[in-house]
């Protein structure tokens, strides 16, 4: 295999973050990834797009995503667009034999996500849903602790994602508030992260029961047809119970993805507003010690996930650096032909999250607990 | 009205806390309460009971609760017993024309709680359910802020109560794990506090949907027939949505009653493990100031609820001191013939909590969202 | 020995706190202390004094401290007055053979404190300086950890006491701002606590070097002749170095006595605004565990100092409850003829703190490091 | 002016951080900086050096710093070497007319630092001491608040820098523990940051008084001749007093630069282990509001310093990103011929820090308070 040529579609928030990660990954990690940031794809072939491409570090720019995907020299397609474009882009890329990373939520509905997954199944291309929280060192440490049995049997997972950015009733109806473009509101945009985290750390849910709410229905620009917030209970395969929550109406919360896991031997708590910390309580794990409590673990030791490549302990990394780990994983899996999962989220993982989101919507509509059945391909 | 004679039934955990509060209330507050700690009632007329009565500050002890309630010289009956005794005691006390404070949960079921409420309705006696969290200064401050409109419209209430004391599978089946005695498990014991808080601060729920779990069913002493934990979603009359949760399986959480309320103008957060603090976020309420965030309010200023009677600011009070406020309220309402609510919880409040708890159980059993109808008397 | 009769001189802030502790000690602790709250002594024999005495739980009131001290039936004298009265009161009480507890600072100067100590030396009476922080459970836990060697060799002690109550330039010159009455300002009132803590936990200082400041010299009521704040470095006998600080000009700090101790095996941090917590870092004390950090220890377990007599864990005690421990210690030492130290501070401890305070003043005046020599009696 | 060619000398910790910042600055900020990462200079011309240069993004590598400095095409020299090399490198670079950024501490002594400053004075080259903390958004916000008068008169500055990396007695004598190479220990390496922060935020000290300590003198590799820790008091020109501290013996502290500033109207607290937060207490600045306290300000709003170029609020930046701001400042000042100060630290600032460090050493040696006189050039 020669150099991997990457095409990135989308250059807004996620496009900026992904570009940074592609640029940085080889600067910090000892890799033999050999890839090129080939082309950045936007909506219109403007000077601005070309300038952005240069600023972000891409060799070229283009404005026809079909053309970009079809290019023979492109090996990897990175889809960082609004949700309604995921399906056609993935299908085309898969047919063209490209490896694909796609932003979450994978599809606007479980059916669409399943179609997307089906589109790549059997093709042999690597597929990854961009659930970037999986690559936070603190969360990787949590996963290591759970997988090694340090937490014992898991009893509870409670996850939530809180923001505040649309609380002003005069905030307009942007694309994230439009069902046909985004698929859903807080549920699909924020809740999906929480759901993926629960699956990553605890396992698959078997039933959910939830309620959705749109607090401000009329906004400049039109009627909002997605949820502003949701609350749900969840039951896991292993017997644990918990909650899923997301809202864009939590004043003071800028970007708080927070979960708490209680096991028979330990409790863990993560809060994205302090992304480099993991709160850990191991009970009276050390007999005779009378000074037990919640530990604020500064996740920055050389023995912590990914940290040997960064800075001396206590010199904390930023939000954008987690994307470096994510794309390191993607490119390494492609380069070395390794499976994306279980560390990375595959399209199957992306589909399963969508299935759970849909079940929450159905429970809201029917007032009934929904057992979840996961489809295969 | 002459002196009020109080009888306390129960001398374990709550009996000790109530006794302390009766002793202390006149030491700190400028009152004309004129009451006497007349008699402490226990199960058996032993020397130990008499010694406890003396230690706790009661003039006499007795072991027949019927006799104690019937005493002509008793004006106030304080019922601090396990739940199954609430009904007969309240009924008898109400018939005897005594003012009553009863520990929560008021009844083991909504029906029983309704019977209890019915028992006092129309008798003219004061009745109070001992939801002591209502009397924490930090929570009173929260209530003042909400009532004055400082938080704007309320969008979310999320409340939980976490403990860890029965996580050891060898911990025996005590009375709190026996349905016939306690009524329910984490739901009625802990969740009821959270539910009462939500009603106190946000308003009545109109629908709930929950799931219960007993993680360890067989224990030394028998089969556990109450819940170890529950999770529920809740919809309020005013349109807010949120969650109720309680568990006795949250390792590291000693006694954490925690809620978070998001309004259109502010967010509040309370955590009983730091009972003298209120976290407050008022958004960008002060234009031009670029230093907004969550404030850790040390609730101890002379202008904070109840604080002018305690210590200089920063000299924090303890858990037991909140009971002083509770009994101050009870005795003042009796002495001055004022209504117990809305600051204190009446038996109607106690009944409504039970109605909500029952609805959560029904939703668990049926998998269906339960709309709540509150009965009258 | 029959019943111990206690006389309390002073009924303001400390008088209120001591009265509460005398009332409460027998209610919580299994003791055979047999003492009576005999007489409360104030400045004038008014109805108000008598009312206060009753409210605080004292059998009688009086307004002549000499007469009170001389009473044959008084066994214990509790001196909770401003500093300038400590010397005459202690001398008279010691001569009368009374056991004595005296508020800090013991004397206004090292000379005066030495005189006071000399006054009791050889008389056989118990003498205790009321350094109440020694009786906080979190601090007792810290002491246990240090004494057992869990912290290893101590390298640093940094202590500070911050308040804000005189920041308003219009705040008048009260007695605490008057050198002839109080002895010194932040140094003797607040710094003395910090100094006592360092001696209690780490050992005796051998040298200090400090600077004092009076930020607002003219106030309504006169010229302030005590310090508003001081900063000092300290060298300990065991080689550790650190700082002492106190100020009444730390906006937002209500009553923050905070110290941090670094040892070769552990770090401890205490903050009085969260008095029931101890922050503990034991390094990588548990090999193989990758989740080390500062633990927030909720000091409320039955195995924590004093806690078996209070409440279930997580039901936190208040500031006033630490005085219960202090007076329990005093009365127990008297009753059982045990030494006040090292848990309690004796008058020698009170004197040594004064010696250190004086050395800090001298270093400020001379700009020179002061080696400290402790006198004997 | 054409393109600016930068040469970086040093490729260890600081070299890596500076390289990253040069690479990233143009990716995030809208600039017309037009500079090239021309050459990375190390000790030996090895393949490893060349590989590092490529990895870090430099066009060339070299191993003769004199040759690099003398290159006609080099405009900016970045000196990220141990302290003993700063003097010869700066002198040569200044003579060659290069703009210079030099790591702190500028010189090993005040004399040396003064020589260095003298070397650039009058040459017209831009000179900057790399006190990177000045470019943390939270600290810039603090500076804005102080400069605008929001904090009122400043009463206290207390700063400290705590690490733990040499606590193991078997840790060898590395260059940072060698006086001839590093100049001093914790004082110059860590304390210098604290001192610079105090000058940046509060103003110049006029007197200091300190004590130094070397806890472990003999290590594998030789005798340690620098300090492990120091404690000092400080008096500022404006009347404020405070402390400076640094230690490499604070178990559990990975990299904690922490200061607290008390003013007549506000208190600020910064802690580098939570670098994106600023704790702010404005007293009762908003009359009528009963919910005042320390605010945890998440410094990530678009209106916060530098933040409009990063991510949406709540998506926090990392330690390394602050260097981007630092080098943005340097390159902008060169490009636009603007003064480095007061935001950036000049060589005069670097010299003044050295003067203060020396005064602390002298006070330690003499036991006497040292008034500080700042030299000119």
Overview of the structural elements:
The structure is a homotetramer of 377-residue chains. Chain A has 377 residues and is an alpha/beta fold. Chain A is built from 10 helices and 17 strands. Chain A has helices at residues 13-28, 47-56, 65-70, 86-95, 110-120, 137-147, 179-182, 186-201, 321-336, 347-366, and strands at 4-9, 35-41, 60-62, 76-79, 99-102, 127-129, 154-162, 205-213, 218-219, 222-223, 229-236, 241-247, 256-263, 267-271, 277-281, 294-298, 370-371. In chain A, the strands form 3 sheets. Chain A has a 9-stranded mixed beta sheet. A 6-stranded parallel beta sheet of chain A has the order 3-2-1-4-5-6, with helices on both faces. A two-stranded antiparallel ribbon of chain A has the order 9-10. In chain A, helix 4 (86-95) packs parallel to helix 5, helix 5 (110-120) packs antiparallel against helix 10 and helix 8 packs across helix 10 (347-366). Chain A is globular, with a radius of gyration of 21 Å. Chain A starts with a strand and ends in a 6-residue tail after the last strand. At the A-B interface, strand 7, strand 8, strand 11 and strand 12 of A face strand 7, strand 8, strand 11 and strand 12 of B. Strand 16 (294-298) of chain B pairs antiparallel with strand 16 (294-298) of chain D.
A few lines on this structure:
The structure is a homotetramer of 377-residue chains. With 377 residues, the first copy, chain A, is an alpha/beta fold.
What are the salient characteristics of this protein?
globular; alpha/beta; 10 helices; 9-stranded mixed sheet; 6-stranded parallel sheet; 17 strands; homotetramer
């Amino acid at each position: 295999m020669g150099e991997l040529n990457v095409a990135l579609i989308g250059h807004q928030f996620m496009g900026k973050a992904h570009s940074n990660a592609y640029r940085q990954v080889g600067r910090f990690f000892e890799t033999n990834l050999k890839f090129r940031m080939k082309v950045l794809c936007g909506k219109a072939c403007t000077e601005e797009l070309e300038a952005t491409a240069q600023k972000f570090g891409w060799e070229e720019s283009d404005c026809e995503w079909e053309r970009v995907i079809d290019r023979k020299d492109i090996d990897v397609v990175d889809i960082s667009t609004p949700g309604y474009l995921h399906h056609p882009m993935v299908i085309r890329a898969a047919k063209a034999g490209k490896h694909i990373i796609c932003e979450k939520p994978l599809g606007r509905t479980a059916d669409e996500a399943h179609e997307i997954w089906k589109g790549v199944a059997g093709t042999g291309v690597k597929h990854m849903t961009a659930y970037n929280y999986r690559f936070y060192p603190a969360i990787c440490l949590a996963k290591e602790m759970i997988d090694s049995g340090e937490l014992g049997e898991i009893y509870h997972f409670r996850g939530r994602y809180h923001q505040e950015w649309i609380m002003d009733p005069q905030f307009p109806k942007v694309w994230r508030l439009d069902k046909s473009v985004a698929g859903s509101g807080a549920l699909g945009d924020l809740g999906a992260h929480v759901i993926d985290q629960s699956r990553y750390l605890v396992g698959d849910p078997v039933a959910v029961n939830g309620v959705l709410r749109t607090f401000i229905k009329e906004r400049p620009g039109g009627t909002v047809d997605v949820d502003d917030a949701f609350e749900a209970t969840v039951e896991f395969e292993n017997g644990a119970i918990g909650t899923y929550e997301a809202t864009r109406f939590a004043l003071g919360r800028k970007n708080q993805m927070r979960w708490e896991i209680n096991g028979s031997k330990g409790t863990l708590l993560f809060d994205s507003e302090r992304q480099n910390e993991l709160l850990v309580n191991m009970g009276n794990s050390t007999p005779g010690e009378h000074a037990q409590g919640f530990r604020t673990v500064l996740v920055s030791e050389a023995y912590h996930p990914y940290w040997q490549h960064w800075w001396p302990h206590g010199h904390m990394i930023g939000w954008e650096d987690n994307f470096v780990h994510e794309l390191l994983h993607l490119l390494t899996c492609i380069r070395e032909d390794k499976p994306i999962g279980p560390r990375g989220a595959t399209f199957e993982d992306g589909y399963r999250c969508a299935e759970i989101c849909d079940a929450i919507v159905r429970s809201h509509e029917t007032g009934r607990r929904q057992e979840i059945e996961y489809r295969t391909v």
